[in-house]
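Aim 2 progress update. The chain analyzed this quarter is reproduced below.
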Amino acid sequence: MTTRSTRAHLAAVVLILTLCISMVSMFAFAQETPIVCGEGVVYTVQPGDSLFGIAARVGTTIDMVLSANNIPLDHVIRPGNTLLIPCAPTPTPTIIPPTPMPGFVTITPTRQQIRRAIRRGQPVPVTTTVDCRNFRATSPLDGLANGFNTFYWDAAPGAQSYSVIVFNYDEENGEVVAYGGSSGDTLNATINLSVRETGPGFNFGFRVEAIAVGQVACRTPIYYVNREAPLPRGS
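Predicted structure tokens:
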């Protein structure tokens, strides 16, 4: 090989390497250069660009780029083409409501309750929070008398009244057979549970409900207790 041909060969190799480096540089430029987005912003496609690459560099979605330019997904872009570059929509923050403290129940009056109070000239009910954490019945848990029984319970601060509900599980299939209650800070109620009042049977249950703004804020579990048998006649 002559000196002249060797030089020509080397020149060709250098030219090819230069072109390769230029193409790689342009591709890297297209991949790394940030693209400005916004309403009416136009971007000129560079060598090495793709629709997915442009969308990724902008931080938007491919669907938004396609929609803004009214082109299909399989559209081929070429250097020199121009594209509208919309910005991605600002995400709407997710608002998580505060979690109420365990055992605290907030009761809000209904519109009907408010209208009724106004119509009757009574104080308008307001939203009330009841502390149900320590609300429980304390007596009678060992058994019921065949007659008058006084029920006791621990307070549910914030409650405006209390109700006691008694169930008969023998003769009445768990139906309510007696009802009583108290208002204000009174934490007991006396109810007649004689056979004449509630029917025969021994297996009873009761629960207590704390009331605020005319609604049940919390209730105790049902306590299952036996009622004593009635005394024989003449005894």
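Residues 29-88 form a domain with the Membrane-bound Lytic Murein Transglycosylase D; Chain A fold (CATH 3.10.350.10). Confidence is low (pLDDT under 50) at residues 24-31. These observations will guide the mutagenesis experiments scheduled for the next reporting period.
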